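Field reference: sequence -> structure
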Amino acid sequence: MKTIKSILYILLFFSANALAQNSVKGKVTNKVTGKQLEGINIFIPEYKKVTSSDSKGEFSFEGLGKGIVKIQATGLGYKSVVQTLVLNSNTDIIISMEVSETELEEVLITSNSSSLPDNIPFSANGVSQKDIRKYSSPSLMGNLSYQPGVDKISLGNGIGKPVIRGLSFNRIMLFSQGTRIENQQWDDHHDLGLSDIGLENVEIVRGPAALIYGADAMGGALIFVDEKPAAAGTNVGDVNLGFGSNTLGINGDFGFKGAAKNGLFYGARFGGASHTNYIQGEKDEAESENKSKEEEEFAANSKFMNMAGKANVGIIQKWGVSKLSYSYFNQQSGIVEVEPVDTSGNPLGEEEQRDREMEAPYQDVTTQIISLENTILTGKSKVNINVGYQTNDRKEFEPTDVKGEKELAIGLQLKTTTYDVKWTSNQEKSFGVTIGSQGTFLKNTNNGIEALVPDANVSDIAGYGLFRYDHNKLNLLGGVRFDARHIEAMTYRTEPTLTDSFIVVPTVNSADTVNPKPSTDFKKDYSPVSFSIGAAYHLNSKFTIKLNAATGFSAPNYAQLATYGKHEGTYRFERGDRNLKVEQNAEGDLGFIYENEFISLNIGGYYNKIKNYIYIANTGDSMVAITDAVNQFPLYDYKQGDATISGGEFGFDIHPAKLKWLDLKVTYAVINGKLDKGGNLPYIPSNKLIGEVKLSKDKFWKFNDNYISFVVRNFEKQKNVAEYELATDGYTLLDIHIGASFKLGKQKATFDIFCTNAINTGYYNQLSLVKYIGVRDMGRNIGLQLHIPFGK
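Structure field:
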């Protein structure tokens, strides 16, 4: 009887909330002049409700329940504002905004509460989709690598692996659709695996402070935030089209979204891209001195294409929001190789290089994600319950002895189930807590001829607690997290595989004797603890100091524990070690931010101490197939050692109030990675300096928002490389962008004309994997991007 009464009380409580009729009405004004501001975007994330201020600066939201929420106000030319709002009957508010000459500042959700970057103790920033696409790289990671502290390991244009502050692979956390993303991050030949269509922005967390997003965030996290729903009672959409000359690349996407007055909202987006082999940058004089005329050189088999789709449907009620999302992403990427020849021994002509049909060797990867995100307002607190299921079907095809035929050499199917439950206390109070639990359950299965990694089951169940304290000039944020991870690996098949035919060709001092293959039947358990504590102190309205200390961990994955085989394109044989220990790091960050009407300045430094850093190294031995003794491959083993990564990011933005047509930005990132016992860490990017000069004019002829920008990227010479890496020379690249908006019927369309690597510099990026076969990065690329909105 008591149980029945309790259930009735709970039902009555939620019914009372459901019947509550709350609304918000407000006005947006200039903080200094009091002028009413039109076109300011207003968003309540807890209810996913969005609108904009009208000509009188007014806005309103209807059909809200009781609770405490955040309300965001963003608009070009003004500093973003985040306010805490108590919903109780009819609420009237005034949002006062300060003029700012900087670009629109993205509001972050990284701390589980909408915040501005200045109020978060660790290094984090948001990059809007518009800013991501403006750099006009063929890949998402290519565009994100313009950010300080962010780089990419690349295999041509189609495959890009994120690197944050010198750490990569499963040390970087990916988060999308309210769930942790798993897509075989352990290999440098696997792409990011996510599309940029339908994104609102990408949040970049540098360092291990993102406890709320899960384990393995030793280096940081990339959080992909979906676009906001349409305003209530509207149906809108847009079309995006693009073209690039270098790869004859074409890309496009089409999306629409709508929201009814009763709280139902929906949206869908479809897109794709197709690129032929890219043309390398020009050789330098030393490489070209024997040629009277330099011909265009293609990067053979660098073509790639993708198809993507997203759809969502949700309901907004007074108790909160529920959203069901589905995404599909298929990418086919050629594996760049030494330039092939025709039957006469001559290099392939332009017609063959421009062919879009995929030819082995190439990868075919399909990722599907379905997730359910729920936000429930329970009076003064809120509960988030997210569940997700994803599949990653990775196939690698290699050519056979029969011309034009291919075989499935490597096939990996990864199925992942996730949950994320958290409770957040009263956001109105100065002190607040978040308590949560996360779970990730993976099942990896081989289905190809070769088995480089074992079949494996992985489970990770975690509990964490976060606290915040916001008072006057101080923002404190900290937390602790406990993970229990279990890995169970098993033999792929009982009969011999292709890799079983390899034997060791030992050196004189080799430790290997008979069978170098590690056992693939084992179970491992890891239970590390992580924490973070940081503060942002605002000395005044212009100057902020950030200080943060955090730890993170990364358990050895099934590839590092039991890989055994020759990876396509690496020209080496890799072998795992089942005795590897957990990687754990402790990082300290110190940052300074200064902003006034003339300049914005951001300086940050970090020191990252890593225990049991896992890396791969040459044993000195070689592997040779019994059936093919001609080809030998150097044997590489996974090893461990303590390491240190240190560096910093510096940036400034000069925007003179009296010269509103001028904007100058400069960022510089420096990094150094060493093994404590001696030697350099692998995959450490070159120090990079990026500068941009932007000239703008509000109106010119029939165009508005006109601009021209010049982006200069300078990468320093990298001499501090790991034992098996090649050093690269420094180089400088120039990009030019011209854009404007124009009236297309009643809509405001925009276009961007770009020319990247305008000088057609021939260069090798330090993190490019194709440099080992003498293939340079992409040369000059001229193109156009067009954005056309529709609906109302």
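Note: Residues 432 and 468 are 5 Å apart (CA to CA).
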